User: Fold non-specific serine/threonine protein kinase from Zingiber officinale.
Amino acid sequence: MTAKAKDARRHEKSVAVLHRTKVLSSPSVGGRFSFVKFKISSTDDFTSADDFRDCVSRSLSLCPREAAAQHRHGNSLGFPIGPVLLLQVHSEMAPFRSLGFILILAFAPFLPSLESACRSGCELALGAYYVTPNVNASYIAPLFDIPGFNDLGPYNPSVRDLNSILSGNRLHVFFSCDCINGEFLGHNFSYQVVSGDTYTSIASDVYGSLTTVAALSHFNSFPENNVQAGANINVIVNCSCGDKAVSSAYGLFETYPIHPPDNLSSIAAAYNFTSQEALLQNYNPGSNFTSGTVFIPTTGISGGAIAGIIVAVIVALLLGICLYIYHRRRKKTKKALFLSPTEAEASIYSAGVTSRVDSSPFAGITVDRSVEFSYEELASATDDFGLTNKIGGGGFGIVYYAELRGEKAAIKKMDMQATNEFLAELKVLTNVHHLNLVRLIGYCTEVSLFLVYEFIENGNLSEHLRGLGSREPLPWLTRVQIALDSARGLEYIHEHTVPVYIHRDIKSPNILINKNFRAKVADFGLAKLTEVGASLQTRLVGTFGYMPPEYAQYGEVSPKVDVYAFGVVLYELISAKDAIVKTDSSATESRGLVALFDETLGKPDPKEELKKLVDPRLGQDYPLDSVLAMAWLAKCCTQENPLQRPSMRQIVVSLMTLSSATEDWDMGTFANQSLVNLMSGR
Assistant:
């Protein structure tokens, strides 16, 4: 083929590529890149990498050097026919600047050396917030859904006064790093626009350059300079979970927006990577470190040391939370709103559950968003409530397995005398929906009281910890995840519902485990509701060993009752012991798990003493620092004074940090790198 013919053929390919090219998303890496996509067709016959680069360069007005990438698949090169090819594009390519996206080939799912569409995120990432004038931690923390500005303290140890930070400095914020729409890693924050805001001011002044004008424009419908005051907009902050192909030694990454006079050398020096500048370049291919955003490993030491440092931060954070709550509460006058049991029960009856006049006060109960089953349908699905379908039982009823209308279900059969428990659970689960709360399918009030739930196929936490049914011991990482899942469920009913719901019977048998070993909080039969910040007095119900002193002695109920019980569950996760432990061989003496751990943590060397309480079925397969951190968290939760206990929101933040550190340790235990990559989803 003549040179002229080859050039014409290349031009045809270029036009075809351009016509098949489509914007996929706005710049997703700090304004440095955008994504486009096109589909490889059967007519694309690239005979060399240069041929492909030249084709793309011509079609997108790029020079071949800028379009360079490593290719291992393709027609003559191994590119699959049919799948969509993603192209990452540089913001400095002038021909497309007016179109809002600029192109450089650097991203494709078929290129193993570069990160493609994500499958999962990670529990913790950091952001280097660029401080502008008149901004402090009290202003910054709520922007990133951080409960209180003091929670930023452990991540900013060099900052003496969080509310007095000089302009131009960096404040380290934290958040979870999510896989957004299966396309890229980031976190979507919600921001309420105030008068005078523009995308430029929101990106630079409000969010400290951690997002971009282009990202705000893409993920919101308002014009750049006409953002409606009072509207809630999406703010995307990109993040990284690392790249095992570059290094497996780093588990926590910070999103760093570059500002003059930043460059590779200054950034490397700031993060103690002076002798490892190439590592930073490998984590940020294509960046010249003079503009945009880069991702920085937070330390230059081993992954195990990272975990140790993070765990140390957690311990300090937990102790700080306890002390902070204690001193703050002492300065305030104690106020408590006490509701009578009658008022509390009336609130459950009145909200969303109504009775029709009938021979039975429970016949004909109607509840929005829940299915009402007939007794005949439930009896048929359970073989007339036969023993072969019985899967459990408790103080308020017997649980049966069933398949109803094509869905696996668990049916709780309750006595007619269990009216309060039935209505409480019906009320909570009809109005509250969360991934970490068991889902209510429906109910029945004929003959007996029935509640129909989703079927959770892997039993409850107590069964796993005690090895019932020949169950294998739960790995430490799984235990941390179960703790985090359970905490998130409780945080939801404590922090995100009005009125607030209080479970009152948190214990390991009431935490269900699904087939993926994720946890759901169940059994809301003792749930109470109250106003935010209030407590109430009520009759004593629940399970001994999980009851805090103020409840066991005076019947006082507040969300801190659940916090105490959750602390006991954390001790169970560590030790696999019951909440009340027999202390001698004759089983005549018993002791609470809380007292047992309090004694251990009070020893001169609590870390060494703690080994004696760790579940023996774990062997040596656990990070002791992580176990110690969970024990300190449990101790904070089980403080005698409820005012000194953390909130579930603070507990979730602590467990997110602990989970990130533990995951890094866990991945380091696998010798098979391919298995590590598969499990990490990266």
